[in-house]
Amino acid sequence: MFSVAAPHAKGKCAEDNIFAANNRAIALAEKIGNDQVVNGTVGSILDEDGNLVVLDVVKEALTKLSPKEICAYAPIQGYRKFLDDCIDQCFGESRPEGYIDACSTPGGTGVLHHVVHNYTEPGDEVLITDWHWGAYDSLIDDNNRRVRSFSFLTEEGHFNAPAFKEAVEDILKNQDNIVIILNGIANNPTGYCMSVAEWQKAVDILKDAVADGRKNAILVPDVAYLDYSGEKQECRKFFKVFGGLPKNILVVCAYTLSKGFTMYGQRMGAMIGISSDKDVIKEFVDINQYSSRATWSNCNSAAQNAMIHICEDPDKIRQLDEERARYFKLIQERASIFMKEAREEGVKFVPYISGFFITIPVTNSQAVCDDLEKQHVFLVPLKKGIRLAVCSISREKMKGLAHKLALAIKAAGARQ
Predict the structure, then answer these.
(1) Which CATH number is 249's domain given?
(2) Counting Cβ atoms within 10 Å, is residue 287 exposed (0-12), middle (13-18) or buried (19+)?
(3) Where do the Aminotransferase class I/classII large domain residues begin and end (predicted)?
(4) What is the pLDDT of residue 10?
(5) Per the domain annotation, does 77 fall within a domain?
(6) Do residues 297 and 326 share a domain?
(7) Average pLDDT over residues 12-36
(8) CB atoms inside a 10 Å sphere around CB 179
(9) pLDDT digits over 350-390, tens only?
(10) Which residues are within 8 A (CB) of 188 and not within 5 positions of it... i.e. 6 or more apart?
(11) Domain that holds residue 212
């Protein structure tokens, strides 16, 4: 094939198996009826009738925006009130000790792009968990960095601290900075949540690894599903472990409005930096603002202003919390139905605590998903298993799904 692309770009393709499976599910539903199709691919909350959930408090805020609030350019860093609201919404009552500031980004994806681009060098390895959102690979590869993964969970189903320690120490033998993307809260795709003690262990490992001051560690907690990971203040307690760290450890929280504010397509989020050193945070804002100007320039004004209007009104914040809690409960009920039936069917799944997804570890995942599609069930094949979106399947459609999955695993000759 003739190509005019630069060498680093040749052969890249943005085809995504999640969107491909979703498109097939939508097409079939239009043909035979939505009630005949189980679409477990969508990483968005759907109600019991299969409609996209947009929180009422968010809908109201969006409809009341003025043309100027919708259309005017936002500052490159983001509106100051928006950034402060992101910090408050992210940490709640568990704001860590230290200097904290933020920059607006187009969703959590923008956070990951900037951290990889600004805190590693071409050819460096970026550390992620083996169970991870597939776009991590593309974000790292497109920046001419290399993916390095470690086994996220032990056989007993807990954070694998020894594997994390081994990977961190090995990477730091060859490079000055290590970036770790750790989606440890309502993990996509497993739904596992690290405990406060497990987050503390991860931080302690980093402190030991850079104790001589010659190397730097940049930890990126991806908290996309934070607001559906547990009780509002309880699930945020782990943020406290990021306070008072040595100045050569920078924590950058990848915060997004996609899930917590159900503004998926508005592409709005913020990178929130935490450091014990004032200069590190000033540099954080300076270099990431510069990269923003050099990539997407500035971010969505409408989404920022909608959040500002919600967060300036205590009654609207209460409504926001109540709506989130209601959908958290719904997702938990759906997950409980599947897990109960999966245990009865002998179908294994990765330990699930909360979040949008459950993962079924299995070989030959594509063949299993192909068989399920013959039964009008659409799930997402992964390298080591299958992702089931409990956020998008109604309680009624969840019933019997584990049985269909058990039959498909057998038909495909797959193993767990």
Answers:
(1) 3.40.640.10
(2) middle
(3) 41-405
(4) 87
(5) yes
(6) no
(7) 84
(8) 26
(9) 999 999 999 999 999 999 999 999 999 999 999 999 999 99
(10) 43, 132, 133, 224, 225, 355, 356, 357
(11) 65-313
Average pLDDT in the 14-42 region?
A: 86
Domain endpoint, select from 313, 345, 366: 313
In tens, the pLDDT along 159-179 reads: 999 999 999 999 999 999 999
Whether the CB-CB separation of 345 and 405 falls below 8 Å is answered with yes
**129 in the same domain as 253:** yes
> Using one digit for the tens of pLDDT, what is the confidence trace for 102-139?
999 999 999 999 999 999 999 999 999 999 999 999 99
Q: Is the dihedral of CA 377, 349, 383, 190 positive or negative?
A: positive
Contacts with 406 (C-beta within 8 Å, 6 or more apart), sequence order: 345, 346, 347
Amino acid at 96: P
Closest CA to 111 of 14, 181, 190, 203: 181
Which tokens is 381 given?
């094949």
Tell me which long-range contacts 157-160 makes (C-beta under 8 A, separation of at least 24). Answer: 157/192, 157/350, 157/351, 158/198, 159/184, 159/194, 159/195, 159/198, 159/201, 159/202
Q: What is the mean pLDDT of the chain?
A: 96
Of the pLDDT bands very low, low, confident and very high (cuts 50, 70, 90), residue 15 is: low
Say how many residues make up the chain. 416
Q: Which two tokens stand for residue 101?
A: 């500031």
User: 406 and 285 share a domain?
Assistant: no
Q: Residue 9 domain-assigned?
A: no
Q: Of 399, 330, 387, which is closest to residue 21 (Cα–Cα)?
A: 387
Give the chain's end-to-end CA distance (angstroms, integer): 40
- Residue 353 has which token pair? 């605590």
Instruction: Decide if 364 contacts 413 (C-beta within 8 A).
Output: yes
Residue 263 shares a structural domain with residue 205: yes
